[in-house]
Specification:
globular; single chain; about 35% helix; disordered N terminus; nine-stranded mixed beta sheet; about 25% strand; three-stranded antiparallel beta sheet; alpha/beta; about 250 residues; Rossmann fold
Length: about 250
C-alpha cells in the first residue's frame, strides 16, 4: 500500500485521493534540512551490469553538481554520463529527438539523474518572449521529455530524478522565468509519479545556493550548501523506494 509523506507547504491530502493517509514531516540528511512531499511505493530490482552494479544515466554530468554526483555514485553504480559534449553520450535537452537518441545509445538503465537544463535569470522588465520560451523549452520541457522518453528505457521500478531549485519556494528579483520552470518541474513530477506508479519512480531535488558557486561569484560560501552534500540527496533519491517527492536541500 503506498503512503504519502507531505511537507507542510503542500496540500498533500488532495493528492491522496482517499487511498493513503497524509502526514507532515521533516527529515535531516547529513546536516541538510530535507522537506518532502512523497508517494512512497515498493521498488523492484533495477538493471545491473555484469559486475552487479546498477547502471545510472547522469544527464548534465560535466557541471559542478554532475561531477560530484558521479563521484559519489561510482563506488556503488556504473555511471553513464550525458551532456552536450565531453561525455559518454551526447544530448541536447531542448531537443526531444536528441533525448530519444541518447536513450538508444545508452541502453537499458536502472536510474536516470538530470542536473542539466538552463533558464534565463533577469529582471521582469527585461525578459522577452524569447527568454521565457528558451527557459520553458530547456529546463522545463527538457526534463518533462526526459521522463516521457525514459519509459521503456528504465527498468520497471527504476527512477528518474529531476532538478528544480530554491526559486520554486522563494521569490527573488530577476527570478521570474526560473521560478516558473522550477515550480513546473516539481508539479509535473508529482503527477508523473502518480500516473507511472509501479512503472517508474519520479523525484525532484531542489538545491539551495551551492557554496562553490557562491565562491566563484565572489560571495560568502558559508551561506551555501556544499556540492557534495547536495549530491548525497540525489543518491538518496536513487537508493530509497520513494516517488513523487521533492527533496529541498538547505542548511538546517
Amino acid at each position: 500500500m503506498p503512503r504519502f509523506v507531505a511537507a507542510f507547504f503542500w496540500p498533500a491530502a488532495s493528492l491522496a485521493r482517499g487511498r493513503a493517509a497524509c502526514r507532515a514531516g521533516r527529515q535531516y540528511d547529513n546536516g541538510l534540512l530535507v522537506l518532502v512531499i512523497a508517494l512512497v511505493t515498493p521498488t523492484r530490482s533495477c538493471h545491473v551490469d555484469s559486475g552487479g552494479l546498477m547502471r545510472v544515466l547522469l544527464v548534465g554530468a560535466t557541471g559542478l553538481l554532475g561531477t560530484e554526483i558521479k563521484r559519489i555514485l561510482e563506488p556503488q553504480h556504473e555511471v553513464i554520463t550525458a551532456s552536450r559534449k565531453g561525455s559518454d553520450v551526447s544530448v541536447d535537452l531542448s531537443d526531444k529527438a536528441s533525448i530519444v537518441a541518447m536513450f538508444g545509445e545508452a541502453g537499458k538503465v536502472g536510474a536516470v539523474v538530470c542536473v542539466g537544463g538552463a533558464a534565463k535569470f533577469a529582471p521582469l522588465d527585461s525578459l522577452g518572449d524569447d527568454d521565457y520560451a528558451f527557459s520553458l523549452a530547456n529546463k522545463l520541457m527538457g526534463q518533462v521529455n526526459l521522463v516521457r522518453c525514459a519509459v521503456g528505457h528504465v527498468d520497471e521500478g527504476g527512477s528518474v530524478t529531476l532538478t528544480s531549485g530554491t526559486l520554486a519556494q522563494q521569490a527573488m528579483v530577476g527570478g521570474a522565468a526560473v521560478s516558473i520552470v522550477n515550480a513546473g518541474v516539481e508539479g509535473f513530477a508529482r503527477v508523473a509519479a502518480l500516473e507511472l506508479e509501479g512503472k517508474l519512480r519520479v523525484n525532484v531535488v531542489s538545491p539551495g545556493w551551492v557554496a562553490e558557486t557562491l565562491q566563484s561569484m565572489g560571495q560568502d560560501p558559508s551561506q551555501g550548501i556544499a556540492a557534495a552534500d547536495v549530491a548525497r540527496v540525489y543518491k538518496r533519491a536513487i537508493d530509497e523506494p520513494i516517488t513523487g517527492q521533492t527533496l529541498l536541500a538547505a542548511k538546517s
